[in-house]
Write a structure and sequence with these properties.
- The chain has 2 helices and 10 strands.
- It is mainly beta.
- It has a domain at 49-168: Immunoglobulin-like, CATH 2.60.40.1890.
- Strands 1, 2, 4, 5, 7 and 8 form a 6-stranded antiparallel sheet that branches.
- The longest helix has 22 residues, at 2-23.
- The radius of gyration is 30 Å and the shape is globular.
- The termini are far apart.
Amino acid sequence: MPMLSRRTHLARAAVLIALCAGSAWVPSVGQTSTPPRPTPAADQNTPWVRVEGGWVRPAVKGQSGTGAFMVLTSRANMLLTGVSSPAAQGGELHLMSMDGNVMNMRPVPSIRLPAGRPVALQPGPDSHHLMLTGLKGPLMDGVQVTLVLRLQLATGEIKTQSVTLPVRNGPVPPKRRGPGGQPAAAGAMGMPAGAMR
């Protein structure tokens, strides 16, 4: 009798072990197996900043510098710390400010780009823009200019991103839609019509 009881217990233990082993590989009814998701390829190919409404002011022969303007929307908190271009010997980040009736322009070390928040680089007081210095030749209306943006992530890592902008005498208002899908009554870069020159 004890032998039979022992064999019975061993048989039951073997069945339990088999069931447990099977449950480790087969999901229960109503459950789904969810392995870790790999990083989507789209995220790896997404630019660090979205550039909209960009343009470069024309420059005549002998002119040493010109400005570049755009709206930047970053996908993470970062700093814009520099700009360069094959069309110029150097590049700077500038801030325009008023001193009485005189508009001053001074270089700044960086421009904050909060995640998901558009930052307008535009003409006018209290505004930032990019300055190309030491132009290697005239920039005529209609040509394309490549800029390389230097970006510093919150981790301190440095990234670069190239963007090609048209040369023209002013921005082209983006197509914005108001309520009901009708065109919104606003000028370039979401500013009131006529606010930018």
